[in-house]
Amino acid sequence: MSQPKGQFIHLTAADGVQVPAYMAQPAGPASGSIVVVQEIFGVNAHIRAVADGYAAAGYLAVAPALFERIRPGVELGYSEADVRQGMGYKTAVAALPAPGVMPDIQVAIEHAAKASGGKVGIVGFCWGGLLSWRAACALTGLAAAVTYYGGGMTAPEELARQPHCPVLAHFADQDPSIPMKGIQAFSRAHPEVEVRVYPAHHGFNCDLRGAYNEAAACLARERTLAFFAARLA
Predict the structure, then answer these.
(1) So what CATH class is 7-232?
(2) Which of 170, 190, 201, 202 is the catalytic position?
(3) Which of 6, 29, 118, 214 reaches 20 to 30 Å from 181, CA-CA?
(4) Does 2 score more than 60 pLDDT?
């Protein structure tokens, strides 16, 4: 099967905001759909490749651009300057009036369901991991959620949330932004969540980052695909 090539589409959130989204379609009938939630670097080459990867696995994938409300067209790399810029955009999004960018994720879920005709899962990385956790707890239409090293997920206000769908959470044991103590607290607060910890650093899934860990990334993807297969069928 050749690698799918996605395209950008435009969605309209409930409040009328236009949200660009990268959509990749499988070669055959979709087995369901996956909403892919970006890091702080925008819907960049890595996030588009992740979406293409889920399309290659048989899912329709949709990756909404979640900085659009504060800065259109963000696409960053992984240099120190890019990290600072992305953190600034993340801070600006956090300062938006509630519900912030959650309507942008909701419209992506709704479009994914309509376009695939099947169940919808969500997967997010770093900031997107946190947003995927919040989506599992607050949004409608999700059958499963997967988070990768979700920054902030172990904060007390996040521990207090309750997911409405099954959740698989991937963490790294050498992630200074998410210490093991916090991961253990999350596991205690949410025994219903499948928590997996890898001997790796923050960002281990991204092959464009120095923290990339092929063994951890492959194992996490294998577990993620099995998790989705069992819940989106």
Answers:
(1) alpha beta
(2) 202
(3) 214
(4) no
